[in-house]
Structure formats: structure tokens, C-alpha cells
Amino acid sequence: MAKQSEKIKSLPKSKDTQDSDFIIAKPEKTSNNELCLFACEVVFFENICQRKRNLHTLIIIGQYGIKSLNGISNLIQLRELWIVECLLKDISELQSYNSKLEKLYLYSNKIDHIPNLSNCPELILLNLSGNNISQLRNLHSMPKLREFHLANNRIRMIGDAFRDNSSLSTVNMAGNPLYQLTVVTIIRILKNKMMFYNMLWHKNSDLSTKSLKNHLKQRNLTTAT
């Protein structure tokens, strides 16, 4: 953050009076439909949402002043949202957010749950890695989800969390203290051709390699050796 602070100081103040309502210094990249704030100090997130209603892409990186997503409902044209490395915790506004959002990146924050995103029916990518999430919930609210990243959280069990996500092709659960992964879950993963990255196996897991291979052999399925 020290280098980022130096960069902020070196940038000129924004001459756009509207932009000055929510940032200090010049945006790294901006257009009518895209705004990237990773070399600026964000003052009011809510003002961004009010002033930039036509945004298709909003990227905010390393801005510790963002405490909630109040005002996000104004961005009805948004397709891609990045709010990462911001210590964000309150994401309750997303549950009532009606949008065309397709990609949502919220990694490296302080989020403790997976929100219900049934009002974002077009969502195909969700990245919640590096948060404080301990339970797999609300995945049923994202039927079109293809890519799901939840690495480095606190997940211990998967159960049937992915039962309704038939479109999923990639799931990243690396760095979670997974304790229980049932054979039924593995079979469902293989049938749906999901790709699980770097699963962390607990020494007391109820699933041994031998028992897994036996179950899969009975069902004419195979595992990589």
C-alpha cells in the first residue's frame, strides 16, 4: 500500500467536478462504460453509483474506505464488477440488486457468507476467494454459474451444495480445511465434468482413495492416477 499511496500523491487532482464527488486524484482508466479505480482514493462508493449509471464494467482495487455496497442498485447496466482487496464486509445490497451482472469479483475482503444472487440471473462467474466464508449456501440462486472460486476460506464440508448448478465447469476450493467430501459428491462432480482445483484433504476425511476407486469402478467411472 505504500507504493500505491506514493502513486496517489503523484497524480493530479481530478478536474471533473462530478468525479471529485467520489475520488481523489485522476482515475487510472475511465470511459463512458468502464471505470477502473486502482490508483485513486475512493471517497464515496454510493456517489460512483449515482454518477456513473451507464457503467458496464466497474473495477475497484485496494480501497479500504468501502464498507458497503450502498447504491449498487443504480448500476442496472453493469456486466462486470470488481471490488477486491478492499476489506469489504457488508454485501447485503447484492441480495436485492436486480441486474444483468455476468461476472462478480469480490476476492480478498472480509465477507463471511455467500449472498443470494437470484436477482442476477445471468451470473456466470463468482470469485469469493480470500474471505471468511464457512458455509456453502445460496448456490441454488445462480443456475447459470459456470465458474466458482472460493479458495482460502473456511469451508469444511461440501455436501450437496452444487446439486442445482448443472452449468458449473470450474470450482476452485484450494486452501480450505475440507473435512468431509462424500463419494456422492465426487460422482456428481465427475458426471458434470467439473474441474476442482487443488482440493485440500484432511487426514480424517471420510473418503479414502481406495474406497473412492471402488465406488467409481462399480459405476463405470474412473479417476486420474
Notes on the protein architecture:
- With 225 residues, this protein is an alpha/beta fold.
- It has one domain: Leucine-rich repeat, LRR (right-handed beta-alpha superhelix), CATH 3.80.10.10.
- Helices cover 16% and strands 16% of the residues.
- The protein has a nine-stranded mixed beta sheet with strand order 2-3-5-6-7-8-9-10-11, with no helix packed on it. Strands 1-4 form a two-stranded antiparallel sheet.
- The model is unreliable at 1-17, 198-212 and 221-225 (pLDDT under 50).
Corresponding CATH superfamily: Ribonuclease Inhibitor
How many alpha or pi helices? Answer: 4
Compute the number of structural domains. 1
How many E strands? 11
- Going across the major beta sheet, what is the strand order? 2-3-5-6-7-8-9-10-11
Question: What are its keywords?
Answer:
globular; alpha/beta; single chain; 225 residues; disordered C terminus; Leucine-rich repeat, LRR (right-handed beta-alpha superhelix)
Summary, kept brief:
The protein is of the alpha/beta class and 225 residues long. It has helices at residues 2-10, 45-51, 183-191, 209-218; strands spanning 23-24, 29-30, 34-37, 41-42, 57-61, 80-84, 103-105, 125-127, 147-149, 170-172, 195-197.
What are the SSEs and their pairings?
Blueprint: H1 2-10, E1 23-24, E2 29-30, E3 34-37, E4 41-42, H2 45-51, E5 57-61, E6 80-84, E7 103-105, E8 125-127, E9 147-149, E10 170-172, H3 183-191, E11 195-197, H4 209-218
Parallel strand pairs: 3-5, 5-6, 6-7, 7-8, 8-9, 9-10, 10-11
Antiparallel strand pairs: 1-4, 2-3
